[in-house]
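ligand=manganese (II) ion
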Amino acid sequence: MPLRQKKTMPNKRREAFSRTVRGWVEQVRRSAREFLEKRRSRVQAAAAAAERVAPGEGKCYFVADLHLFANRSKGLRHFDEILRKAAQAQCFVFGGDIFDFRWAQTKSHAQTIEQASVWLMALGETCPQCRFHYVLGNHDYHRRFIDRLYALDLALPNFSWHPFYLRLGSSVFLHGDVADGEGATAESLAASREVWLDKNRRGPWLSSLYDAVVLARLHKPVPHLVYTKRLVAQRVLAYLERIGQGPAAGVRNVYFGHTHLPMANYHYQGLTFHNGGAPIKGMKFRIIQAVME
Ligand SMILES: [Mn+2]
């Protein structure tokens, strides 16, 4: 059964689920506190800043494609930057492929999921004034991780997740894998994501190949940059129109990732597109401040 965009859980199931995951949530909470304790001075500074943000005020940030655990990436450095920004924010949107379950180099899926959850729990607990939204990408669309997102949603009052997109005011946030081909629809996106839902990850040999080939290729200069940006914008816009989230529905800004191709205020057909790139081997990367009115 493909996931629907609106994920709801009936109250009765919610209670039963909440009982079964309670132990897991407590374990993650303990690990998150240990993790935060190790970076105490930074965490205290962030918590103090978070307290100064008045309700309904503060910025909104968007980040995607960290691919944590995949490529010896600078996970902790990203955590500190995100923590600093989340401490001044009322909203922080993760745009998918934050954790990379296909290419993780941790010992097991369970360990990747645990570490990812600790990360999210640590952020959510340190910055209670900020609402964290997790929009899934194609590399973190994994059934066991999604189960844990349900649990985090129950455990943290300021955490929500969204399988395909999020609309806030005049902004839409999505991963951007709809830009891979022509004609993406809600159904085709769900179908292409399903393929990976239960897949095991790649072995270490393929993982190093991925590092060497795939990530390296992605950061090669793109010869027809303008055309590429235009094509990407065109495909994303066509998808948004099909799901009723185009300019006619009041959308003005689109925040996305996946292509690893930075786009800053790229105007196309009444929309402004934003992509922060990816923090991979010297590529351009930034956490974007988003409009949410
Ligand atoms: Mn992706």
